Amino acid sequence: MKMIIFLLWPLAALANTCADMVPTAGMTCHEYTLFDGQTTTIMVNNRLRVDGKYQETATTGVAPRATETPITTDQDNDMCGDTTWTNDSDPTWPPVADCNSIGQWARDNMVYWRAYKHDLAARSMTTLLVSGRCKFVIGCNRDDIPEYGIIVGNTDVADLVQDAIATKVKDDRVAALGTMNCWTTDTNGGVKTTFTKWGIIDVSIA
């Protein structure tokens, strides 16, 4: 995916620190300084591996190899190919500023996400990141869940969010859905691609 310039979009009414956030089951709060110097919060699923360390989870019955993410690396991670785009008009589109925060965080953090089969089977879409009213999600066809999960890189998320902001904004709101082929692995540990759904959507959408 190509890199594009980030917009310094005006901030929406986001909580500036994690102390301001209402605790959310299954999510861990991370404070993040935006490119314009303002601080916002990014929520990350607490079943995930953050900064290379496994986090405790309040969720019972989660398999040890549920989604583990973000996994920190020493380079940007581009794991997906070209995407399709849809963005039907909907009053629940999240504010651009909220989604822009997700895009900036993804561009600024060299990580990748691996959503395992167990996690993909448990819900229609798996949330990777949340900021304000905006969340970035991934999923797959329910009848074709890849055995070794889906791998999505920080560059993939950043590019999708910023391309959406560049082309899909309406009344300072943005949303988009699409499909693309992202990395997975085979029984021998080799890399191949698998059909992947993604979405930039409002937190009210399950």
Automatic annotation (TrEMBL):
InterPro entries (alphabetical): Ecp2-like (IPR029226)
Signal peptide residue numbers: 1-19
UniProt region (Disordered), positions on chain: 59-87
Keywords in alphabetical order: Signal
Signal is among the record's keywords: yes
Superkingdom, taxonomy of origin: Eukaryota
Annotated ranges, domain Ecp2 effector protein-like: 79-182
Pfam families: Hce2
Identification of the protein by name: Ecp2 effector protein-like domain-containing protein
Lineage, broadest ranks: Eukaryota, Fungi, Dikarya, Ascomycota, Pezizomycotina
